[in-house]
């Protein structure tokens, strides 16, 4: 299966056909949205996938796809939880309670804003310890920049229960963040049968559509 993460300023995002929304999270105080989608991959997949927002402002938009083997294709997402922060550089993803054997994914997306008249020169980036970074991506335009990072605890699966989050330390001055924990349900109950993680290219755009091109590079 494949997961897609999209970061933008607009609440209306149209995914390509065949993608199912996991959760749309609109930051409660800042113009900042992160969406997560999944798609059960078939024997033949497209060269790229284009996600479109409503193009109502000039803010940047970015996204990335990550694929996993060994996931339950009937119920791939066992559980997910979200949280948000404002003006905090170091945050942790929220705790999650799973009902089946899962691989835990921890994702942080952040927004950086500088004063009018200046031009932002980099996207937010993050430092994490004791975990494997699967994706780090971002986009910037004018005075606004977005950055996202996806990590896992290697390819170790966890038993059903409540599990803690992962700490992310931002390398920039952050105005707002959204934190997300997702439990991918394993196809079998064997904790030693870890799924294989497959990387993807990232897509960025200052409007209107980031085209995200998956690639089959085994990194797990």
User: What's the N-to-C terminus distance?
Assistant: 15 Å
Largest sheet features:
7 strands, antiparallel
Rg, rounded, reads 17 Å
Q: How are helices and strands ordered from N to C?
A: EEEEEEEEEEEEEEEEEEEEE
Shape label: globular
* Number of distinct helices: 0
Low-confidence runs? 190-220
For the secondary structure, the number of strands is 21
Query: In percent, how helical is the residue content?
Result: under 10%
Mean pLDDT over the full residue set: 78
Report strand %.
Answer: over 45%
Structural class: mainly beta
What does this structure look like?
The chain has strands at residues 2-8, 13-14, 20-26, 33-39, 49-50, 52-53, 61-68, 77-86, 90-92, 96-98, 102-113, 126-127, 132-141, 144-158, 161-163, 167-170, 176-185, 197-200, 202-205, 211-212, 214-218. The protein is mainly beta. The protein starts with a strand and ends with a strand.
């Amino acid at each position: 299966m494949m997961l897609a993460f999209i970061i933008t300023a607009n609440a209306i995002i149209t995914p390509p056909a065949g993608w199912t929304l996991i959760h749309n999270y609109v930051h409660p105080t800042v113009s900042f949205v992160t969406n997560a989608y999944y798609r059960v991959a078939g024997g033949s997949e497209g060269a790229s996938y284009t996600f479109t927002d409503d193009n109502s402002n000039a803010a940047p938009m970015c996204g990335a796809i990550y694929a996993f083997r060994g996931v339950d294709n009937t119920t791939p997402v066992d559980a997910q939880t979200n949280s948000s922060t404002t003006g905090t550089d170091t945050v942790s993803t929220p705790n999650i309670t799973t009902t089946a054997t899962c691989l835990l994914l921890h994702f942080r997306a952040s927004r950086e804003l500088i004063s009018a008249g200046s031009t932002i020169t980099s996207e937010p980036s993050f430092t994490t310890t004791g975990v494997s970074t699967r994706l780090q991506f971002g986009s910037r335009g004018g005075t606004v920049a977005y950055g996202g990072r996806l990590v896992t605890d290697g390819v170790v699966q966890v038993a059903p229960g409540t599990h803690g989050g992962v700490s992310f330390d931002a390398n920039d001055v952050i105005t707002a963040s959204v934190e997300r924990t997702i439990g991918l349900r394993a196809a079998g109950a064997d904790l030693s049968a870890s799924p294989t993680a497959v990387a993807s290219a990232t897509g960025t755009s200052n409007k209107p559509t980031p085209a995200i091109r998956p690639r089959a590079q085994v990194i797990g």
